[in-house]
Amino acid sequence: MNEIENLKKLYEKLKKQIEQRLQEFTAKKNENEIEILKEFVFCTLTPQSKAKVCWQAVENLFNNKVYVNPTEENIKKFLKGVRFPNNKAEFVANNLRKIKEDHFDLKKFVNSSTPSQEKRMFLVKNFKGIGMKEASHFLRNTGHFDLAILDRHILRNLLELGVIEKVPESLSTKNYLAIEEKMKDFSNQIGIPFAHLDMLLWAKEAGEVFK
Q1: Does CATH number 1.10.460.10 belong to domain 30-140?
Q2: Which residue from 129, 113, 148, 145 is spatially nearest to 40, judged by alpha carbons?
Q3: What's 35-80 look like in SS3?
Q4: Under the phi-then-psi rule, with left for phi > 0, alpha for psi from -120 to 50, and beta for the rest, what region is 103?
Q5: Domain with residues 3-26+148-206, CATH architecture
Q6: How far apart are CA 188 and CA 195, in angstroms?
Q7: Closest CA to 46 of 83, 14, 80
Q8: N or C: fewer beta carbons within 10 Å in the chain?
Q9: Confidence of residue 186 (pLDDT cuts 50, 70, 90)
Q10: Is the separation of the CB atoms in 134 and 46 below 8 Å?
């Protein structure tokens, strides 16, 4: 059985879980701004760190209302197990302060009719620690399903599936968009919806459907 057949078999097994998770992401944009803000902080913490560890850190941060007075020192205390805690504490503190000082309505932003691609570039240009992957991750988790989250799990699988020829050492915006398009084409070819494929490849590596 080849890689694509294995992938389709796994998809049949996980399809309902993936659909349920995507429904939760769609509903997320209708939740209060704190819940949306938690997703934003989560996606800032995830690079090269375990998703569940990052989500626990987010829960601890918000349970202790650190977002009310976000300082690097206060935030770092709750980043146990998160890689690069110094940098990420700085990113989170800066972003939380910017959102507060600029009166940036995150809920209004995710619910606006602005195309996903434009929203992504706005986040990349205006917030620290938010690259194409992190912005795509946040937008996916708030109901935008036309963007790829090209982390190491996804890229490694795209290589194994023959979608890309090599895993790039770094991703420029141009390369990111090119791989995203290749992934969309592959999604159409094998008949697995794009948003489902992203979660499927992540679950294949991580062993579960998470976020």
Answers
A1: no
A2: 129
A3: HHHHHHHHHHHCCCCCHHHHHHHHHHHHHCCHHHCCCHHHHHCCCC
A4: left
A5: Orthogonal Bundle (1.10)
A6: 11
A7: 83
A8: N
A9: very high
A10: yes
How large a percentage of the chain has pLDDT more than 90?
87
Token output for 109: 């932003």
What is the helix (H) or strand (E) element at residue 102, kind and residue range?
none
Tens digit of each residue's pLDDT (9 = 90 or more) over 198-207: 999 988 877 7
Q: How many CB atoms lie within 10 A of CB 160?
A: 14
Give the span between the Cα atoms of 113 and 63, in whole angstroms.
Answer: 32
Q: Where in the chain is the domain with CATH 1.10.1670.10?
A: 3-26+148-206
- Please state, in angstroms and rounded to a whole number, the distance separating the CA atoms of residues 154 and 62: 29
- Residue whose C-alpha is closest to residue 201's, from 146, 160, 172: 160
Between CA 129 and CA 44 the distance in angstroms is 6
Q: Rounded mean pLDDT of the chain?
A: 94
- Residues with active-site annotation: 133, 151
Report which secondary-structure segment, H or E, holds 151: none
Is pTM beyond 0.90? Reply is yes
Q: Are 148 and 199 in contact (CB under 8 A)?
A: no
pLDDT at 169: 86
